[in-house]
Amino acid sequence: MNDKIFTLSNKEDYIYYLAELIIDFITYKNRLSTYQLEMNKLIEENKNNHIVDTYLYQSVSDRIKSLFYYIFNLIGDETKTAVSYRKFRKRLYKNRMFLKLNIDDLSQEERQIINYFNKHRNWGLHIPESLFVHKKDFFNIDSKYINEHKKTIIVPHYNFFEIEYLEKLNKETNEVLSLLEKLEKRIFKDYQILVDENFEILIVTEKLKSYKIMDIVKSSFNTNSFNNKNHNENRK
Questions:
Q1: Adjacent-strand bridge partners of 160
Q2: What is the rounded CA–CA span in Å between residue 31 and residue 34?
């Protein structure tokens, strides 16, 4: 048994998988909307100055970008052992006859949305060397400059950022939320077809989230680490 991969063997497996994906989808979409409200407030408070304090900018930017990366993965990841709607939808449509489902293929717009998340997922989860290339060109850094300054490495720190950084991030956040709203309709429709009846989204507020639930994450980490260790040892 390979615990690294969730096996989709029957309709109940598909229902469980998509339900879990929907839980994350709603949770992270709602959190992104909440952080955007904070960002809008920060833009409004600083729009006349045209600048924003570095700490305030980074506190909002870092949180929003971390949600971006999670959402991009949740929708667009193609990694074999990763959860994603992109992978799930392909399996669902491919096995529609086996599951006895009358389900449509994705529309062109829906494909474009998922490709958008895949593209940004691939961009955001690595640091491209092209950044070094273009930075070198932008500042006209040549061999002479490098040799003259090689004894000192300057780490820049800015007290303020131009407000445009927040405005552009806000625009990107609007775009992501808009695309999520469109894709949400398809995801919910898929789930309704799977369960063959109407369903409801019920948000339940509980007093405390126990840390004990992190045992799930720990077990998942150990599963992946153990299998990777065995794979590396077999290659020796």
A1: 53
A2: 5
